[in-house]
Amino acid sequence: MRRLAHMAKLDGKVAVVTGASKGIGAAIAKALAKDGATVVVNYASSKAGADAVVDAITAADGKAVAVQGDVSKAAQAQGLIAAAVQQFGRLDVLVNNSGVYEFAALEAVTEEHYRRHFDVNVLGVLLTTQAAAQHLGEGGSIINISSVVTDIHPATSAVYTGTKGALNAITGVLANELAPRKIRVNAVSPGFVVTEGTHTAGIAGSEMEAGFVAQTPLGRAGQPDDVAGIVAFLASDDARWVTGETINASGGVR
C-alpha cells in the first residue's frame, strides 16, 4: 500500500523525456516512472541505452516505451510527441533534457561546433516544446535542463554556456506565453554530475572533477538522482504554483 501511495503523485500522467538513454535523462525517466507516470524514453542514437532504461522501469512495475528521434529536426521532434499521444492518448509532462556539450577555446570555435550545440540545445527545445504545447492541457509541466555554467561562466565554454543562457531566457518567455493555458515552464540547472558523458569526456575522476568538487559547498560531485528528484517535483502538482523559475541543483555552486 505504501508503494501505491508513493506512486500516486504522477499517477495517470504521461511524460516525454528527451535524451533519456543515459545519465541525467535516464535518472529523470526512472524517477517520473517511480512516481507513477507513463514515460516515453527518447533517444537519438543509443537504442540499447534507451531499452535498458525501459527494462529497468518495467522491472520496477513502471510503464515506459523507447522512441527514437533527433529533436533538432522538426519532423522527428513532432514524431516523438505524436508517438506519445497516439500510444497513450495524452501528454502531461515534457522534460527537455537532450543536449550536447563540448568545450572549445575561442580560437577553436567553428561554425559546425556552434550549430551542433545550438541546433540540439536550443532549437531542439523549441521544436519539441512547439509540438508538445499542442497537446498539453491545464496542469501541464515543461521542465528544461539547463546548467550552472550560466552562473559560473567556465573558460572555453562560450558556445555551450551560450546555449544554456538562451535556454534560461526561453524558459522565462514560455512561462509567460503558456501561463494563460495553465501550463508551467521551469528549468533545472545542474552543477557537475557524474554520468557516462562526463566519464567519456575524461572529466569524471580527473583533476577537473576535483576542481569542481573543491568549488562545491556541499563537498561532492552530483549524481543523476540529485537532479531527477527536483524534476519529479516540478512535474507534479506539488509545484502547481511554480513557473518561470530556474532552480540550481549544484550543491551550492553559484
UniProtKB/TrEMBL annotation:
GO MF annotation terms: 3-oxoacyl-[acyl-carrier-protein] reductase (NADPH) activity
Transmembrane stretches, start-end: none
UniProt enzyme class: oxidoreductase
Catalytic activity, EC: 1.1.1.100
The keyword Oxidoreductase is annotated on this UniProt entry: yes
Pfam family, one: adh_short_C2
Highest taxon of source: Bacteria
Family: Belongs to the short-chain dehydrogenases/reductases (SDR) family.
This protein's name: 3-oxoacyl-[acyl-carrier-protein] reductase FabG
Organism (species): Methylobacterium symbioticum
Protein encoded by which gene: fabG_10
